[in-house]
């Protein structure tokens, strides 16, 4: 089968930043299923790993990354109970195993969901990683729920990115929160409104932007951009006993003590934690993905895909990473096989 | 009435580190009640404020601190609904108002509870601040509950202090957790076992101490001593998706990013947050104190008082602070009026 990977961390414009190569189709054992991939999407984690994981070393067999795929089940391990051959499934996968930049992939059934049926394959391919991340941070980490939190206010830092796009929708349409999203360009502002944001603020001078639209403080803040950069604003804007979540890549220590006076809570979300540590509750991701499928099929959530590249080629993988690395992409980018 | 305070932050051995003086009895208005105090207890927050709040300045009227009292209601403001004259009440109070080192005090009824009936006045005086802190961190911050958390494991850093003594009991007797407490001297170890700890560990080399007794990781960690000092151990010992709480006085920034891989949560607890910010739910402290009274009266919680000084004098206040500042006290110290 065909796979695309890299032997060394290279600038995306270099010839070998992505290489097409042949690989054996793996065998599904235990709780693994073998999936024939039909489309994938790219996420910031992809280029971060491409640029950093093989910086100081080189490997003979190219490293296969990519953590978003849709496809059909080709074979099942002997302990598989959730899926059968022919099911169309979607998933983000496991950071500790090969990714989805290949024609066939094995993945643990507990982190796989039934794909949505009423949206296109490309649209569905864009959803798993961002939906799992946005769902986990709001429901599993901050433990928000409609009963007790309806009409409370959430500030979403980074509304137009992949996770922000699903985050705004879940916060607004499923939890009934009042949603303030940061969006600083016209195209991102329009996108956030389309996702359901109630208020938009510029990320620069965030504190006065939020106060200007009538909020002294907010109940919840989730950061999808840069925790260190927004720390001071977060400390000022969070309500006493408020909840703060982040998925961003920390660039240094933070003065956590500044939150003590308010008895505030801080939650990390990493979508890979459950699979990486094989937590007892890792099957939660199966249930979350099924729920996301249902919300998409019922039209409650709208797809966040914005760009499709046709054909699983090294050139398309380069184009995909190049766009994502520019930081200018809005919504999600999908590569159709 | 008599009050005891200080005009300047002084070493406890200096003559004027505490001064007795006369003060007008205040009037209860609104939701405030006026309490005739019968006994108080001291907490680390007392000497921290005595030592630091008037370091660079001096005031004419002595500053009155102290946040633990039991007494009887003498008068009620016109909006008071929870208490009537003659009720015996106990409370920790509000950091932004005068404390309980005086014969009469006004306090908002929403942070006051009915005193326990089956234990002594001195024993009851020792409970409010530490019980509120321990209860809030376990139930309101980490959101632990018996149904879902029974038999999970909590590591309590600082088991023999005031908050630790109640924390061990609530974790063990009310939540049904398996409790590991740090205690490094014979007297503190005995005390922690008396409070209900299942396992004791030395605070030095905490990681290997915990592993030695058979735990690779723990579900919850609460720090009542020093977050910076134990940070590395906390990062290593917490389970993926685990919960960490702290009440300690932070000495510097922390590398919060180290918890991201595990998607762990961090909670601050400051007992004064609710009153300080007049949060909508500040009446929660009334309910918590009533529940603590019931648990004490039913013999489920045992009192944590260990030392009583007889007489509300500057000499006794000095003795109380001196003992607390030594860091060697076990359980709680009470001054009886």
TrEMBL record, chains A, B:
<dbReference type="InterPro" id="IPR051603">
    <property type="entry name" value="Zinc-ADH_QOR/CCCR"/>
</dbReference>
<keyword id="KW-0521">NADP</keyword>
<dbReference type="InterPro" id="IPR002364">
    <property type="entry name" value="Quin_OxRdtase/zeta-crystal_CS"/>
</dbReference>
<comment type="subunit">
    <text>Homotetramer.</text>
</comment>
<dbReference type="Pfam" id="PF08240">
    <property type="entry name" value="ADH_N"/>
</dbReference>
<keyword id="KW-0479">Metal-binding</keyword>
<keyword id="KW-0862">Zinc</keyword>
<keyword id="KW-0694">RNA-binding</keyword>
<dbReference type="InterPro" id="IPR014182">
    <property type="entry name" value="ADH_Zn_typ-1"/>
</dbReference>
<dbReference type="GO" id="GO:0016491">
    <property type="term" value="F:oxidoreductase activity"/>
</dbReference>
<dbReference type="Pfam" id="PF13602">
    <property type="entry name" value="ADH_zinc_N_2"/>
</dbReference>
<keyword id="KW-0560">Oxidoreductase</keyword>
<dbReference type="GO" id="GO:0008270">
    <property type="term" value="F:zinc ion binding"/>
</dbReference>
<dbReference type="InterPro" id="IPR013154">
    <property type="entry name" value="ADH-like_N"/>
</dbReference>
<dbReference type="InterPro" id="IPR011032">
    <property type="entry name" value="GroES-like_sf"/>
</dbReference>
<dbReference type="GO" id="GO:0005737">
    <property type="term" value="C:cytoplasm"/>
</dbReference>
<feature type="domain" description="Enoyl reductase (ER)">
    <location>
        <begin position="5"/>
        <end position="335"/>
    </location>
</feature>
<dbReference type="InterPro" id="IPR020843">
    <property type="entry name" value="ER"/>
</dbReference>
<comment type="similarity">
    <text>Belongs to the zinc-containing alcohol dehydrogenase family. Quinone oxidoreductase subfamily.</text>
</comment>
<protein>
    <recommendedName>
        <fullName>Zinc-type alcohol dehydrogenase-like protein</fullName>
    </recommendedName>
</protein>
<keyword id="KW-0963">Cytoplasm</keyword>
<dbReference type="InterPro" id="IPR036291">
    <property type="entry name" value="NAD(P)-bd_dom_sf"/>
</dbReference>
<dbReference type="GO" id="GO:0003723">
    <property type="term" value="F:RNA binding"/>
</dbReference>
């Amino acid at each position: 089968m065909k796979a695309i990977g890299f032997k060394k961390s290279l600038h995306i414009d270099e010839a070998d930043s992505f290489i097409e190569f042949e690989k054996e189709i793996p065998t599904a054992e235990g709780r693994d299923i073998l999936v024939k991939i039909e489309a994938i999407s790219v996420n910031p984690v992809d280029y971060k790993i491409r640029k950093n994981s093989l910086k100081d070393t080189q490997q003979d067999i190219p490293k296969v990354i990519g953590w978003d795929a849709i496809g059909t089940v080709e074979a099942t391990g002997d302990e598989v109970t959730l899926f059968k051959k022919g099911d169309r499934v979607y998933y983000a996968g496991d950071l500790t195993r090969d990714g989805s930049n290949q024609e066939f992939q094995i993945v643990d059934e507990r982190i796989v969901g039934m794909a949505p049926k009423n949206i296109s394959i490309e649209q569905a391919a864009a959803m798993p990683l961002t939906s799992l991340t946005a769902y986990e941070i709001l429901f599993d980490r901050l433990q928000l729920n409609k009963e007790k939190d309806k009409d409370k206010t959430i500030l979403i830092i980074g509304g137009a990115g992949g996770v922000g796009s699903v985050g705004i929708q879940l916060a607004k349409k499923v939890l009934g929160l009042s949603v303030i999203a940061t969006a600083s360009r016209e195209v991102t502002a329009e996108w956030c409104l389309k996702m359901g944001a109630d208020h938009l603020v510029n990320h620069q001078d965030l504190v006065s932007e939020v106060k200007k639209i009538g909020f002294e403080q907010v109940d919840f803040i989730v950061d999808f951009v840069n925790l260190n950069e927004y720390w001071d604003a977060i400390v000022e804007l969070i309500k006493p006993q408020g909840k703060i979540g982040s998925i961003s890549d920390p660039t240094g220590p933070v003065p956590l003590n500044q939150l003590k006076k308010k008895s505030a809570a801080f939650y990390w979300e990493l979508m890979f934690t459950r699979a990486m540590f094989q937590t007892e509750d890792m099957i939660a991701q199966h249930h979350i993905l099924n729920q996301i499928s249902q919300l998409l099929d019922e039209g409650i959530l709208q797809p966040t895909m914005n760009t499709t590249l046709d054909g699983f080629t090294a050139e398309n993988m380069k184009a995909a990473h190049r766009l994502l690395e520019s930081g200018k992409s809005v919504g999600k980018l999908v590569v159709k096989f």
